[in-house]
Amino acid sequence: MSVWESKGATLTDISKLSAKTSETSSPESEQAPIAGKSGEPSPQAEVSVSRSRLAPVWARIVPFFASAFFFMSGIFTIFSPLPLIFLYFRRGRAWAWLALLTNSVVITIAGGSPTLALYLLFVGVLVIALTELLAFRKSFEKTAILTLVSMVFVGAASVLVYCRAHHLSPVLEFKSQVSGLVDTVVQTLNSANQDGKGAPGPSEADIQDWKQSFILEFPSAVAVFALVMIWASLVLVFRANPGQIRERLGMPADYLSRWRSPDWLVWPTIVSGACLIWDLGPVTDVGLNLFKFLMAIYAIQGLSVLAFFLSQWKVRGMFRAVGYAVAVFVMMPLLLSLGFFDLWFDFRAKFRQS
Hints:
Blueprint: H1 2-25, H2 27-31, H3 43-52, H4 57-61, H5 63-73, H6 82-91, H7 93-135, H8 140-165, H9 170-195, H10 204-240, H11 245-249, H12 266-274, H13 282-312, H14 317-329, H15 332-340, H16 342-345, H17 347-353
Helix pairs in contact: 5-6, 5-7, 6-7, 7-8, 8-10, 9-10, 10-13, 12-13, 13-15
C-alpha cells in the first residue's frame, strides 16, 4: 500500500514539473510583454515594440529637406509646413526644430538670405506657433488666429528692426522694393514681346497703376496667403491625425465639414464692403484690404459647405480633389457666395431636412 502511494506522489510531482516547463517554454510566454507591478508593459517591452514600428530610412530622412523643396517649387508652397508638423507630432519637438534648421540651410544655399527670411516667416513661425498651440490643446479657431497674429507680429518686428539697423524708412523702402519688382516684370514682358511679333509693351501710366495697386493691396495679399497656409496645414493635419491630435482636442472626424465662421463677422464685412462704394481716401484703402481678407474667410466656409455635400454624396479620392480645384480656380464667386449666404440660408441644415 505504501509503495503505490509513493508511486502516485512521484507521478504527481512529475506532471507538475512538466506543466511548469511547458508554461516557461511556450512561444506565447516568450512573446508576451514583461509586465510591471501595475500590469503595464515594462520599458523594455515598449522599446521592442517601438523598434518594430520604425519607419523606413528614407521616410525618416525626407522631412529634413522636403519642406525646402515644397517652398522653392512655388506650386506646392502651401504644403511646405507639413513635413515639419508631422515630424513634431510623431518624433517630438527636438526633431522638428532640427529639420527646420536643415531646411533653412537648403533654402539659404538655393535662394539666398531674402528667400530664407520669407521661409522663416511663412514656414518657421507657422510651424512653431501652430504645433505649440495644438500641443497646449487650443481649439481650431484659436490656433489659426494666434498663429496668424504671431506671423504678423514677427514679420512687422523684423521689418522694423531691419529698417532701423540700416537707417531706412519702412514705407519708402517698401515702395522702392515694389517699384523694382514691377520694373523687373515689365522688362521681362518687353523682352518676351521683342522675341515674338513685336507687340507693344505696357505704357508708363499702366506701370504706375500697377505699382500703386500693388502697394495698396499688398497687406491683404500677404494676410490671405498666410491664412491659406495656416488653413491648409490645419486641415491636412486633422485629416492625417498624427499623434491622435483630434482625439486629444475632442474634435469629431466631420468637424471641418461642419465648420462655419462666427455670425458677428458679417458686420465688418458689410461695413468694409460699403467703404468701397465711395472714395474716402485712406478709409477706402483700409476697407479694401479688410474686405478681401474677410472674403477669404468666407471662401473657407464655402469649402466647408462643399466638403459637407461631397461627403453626403460619397464623393471620394481624385474626384473630390477635382471638385475642390474647380471650385477654387473656376467658380470662386460661387464659392464666396456659398460661404457668405450660408449665415442666412444654412444650406447644410436644409439638406439634412430634405
